[in-house]
Design a protein that fits this description.
Length: 220
């Protein structure tokens, strides 16, 4: 005996409704998935744009740092400014002299000895150099003897023959001792123009000559 047609139709309608619900849920899931995929794509695009902006900003920063480095002038030697030739805010050109830098790494003594003392001086002899400004001494050595008396190079030469008491003085160069791995002027205390009292130890002397022996006016 066959079931009534109404019963079969009702069952088919129920199956159809379930199928429609399943289809609707699938469509909803599909839309959600498509939306999520679009959001992922949008997020990726934003990330790529942000990366591009970061790279551009980094490039601009490097260019700015490069231009800033052009405004810094570095001296090839360690020293002090002896003379400034320009003022702040002044325009300068390539090759223009800006400042005179006096090196503190290459400092020596010019000691004026009496001509009678030169016969006892030799390069390499040890010396003690007292700097008046600091009340302390540095070790050094005689490097070279001047080739002419200081008066010969002066504007008004002095004739010692007319006055035997007026002895000529000859410049003697005294260099500071440089110990291994040590900078004798690391603190920058020794500056050109300072007055010093050098004393050179020679073999024939039993004592170290004092400034009264004829070494006044010595300079860095």
């Amino acid at each position: 005996m066959r079931p009534p047609i109404e019963a079969v139709l009702g069952a088919d309608q129920q199956v159809l409704m379930q199928t429609q619900e399943t289809l609707g849920q699938a469509i909803t899931n599909l839309k959600v998935a498509q939306t999520a995929s679009q959001q992922v794509s949008i997020a990726k695009a934003k990330a790529q744009a942000a990366d591009s902006q970061i790279m551009e900003s980094q490039s601009q920063l490097e260019q700015a740092q490069l231009r800033l480095s052009y405004t810094i002038i570095r001296s090839p030697v360690t020293g002090v400014v002896g003379k400034r030739r320009v003022e702040a805010g002044q325009n300068v050109s390539v090759g223009q002299e800006l400042i005179d830098v006096v090196s503190l790494d290459d400092v020596w003594i010019t000691a004026n000895f009496k001509e009678a003392q030169l016969g006892h001086l030799r390069p390499g002899q040890p010396a003690e150099i007292k700097v008046d400004a600091y009340g302390r001494s540095w070790k050094g050595h005689v490097t070279s003897l001047g080739g002419a008396a200081g008066s010969v190079l002066s504007a008004i030469p002095c004739n010692s023959a007319s006055n035997p008491q007026d002895r000529q003085r000859v410049p003697v160069r005294i260099d500071f001792d440089r110990l291994q791995n040590q900078d004798f002027n690391a603190a920058g205390l020794l500056k050109p123009g300072l007055s010093v009292e050098p004393a050179v130890r020679v073999r024939w002397l039993r004592r170290t000559p004092s400034p009264s022996d004829g070494m006044p006016g010595s300079r860095l």
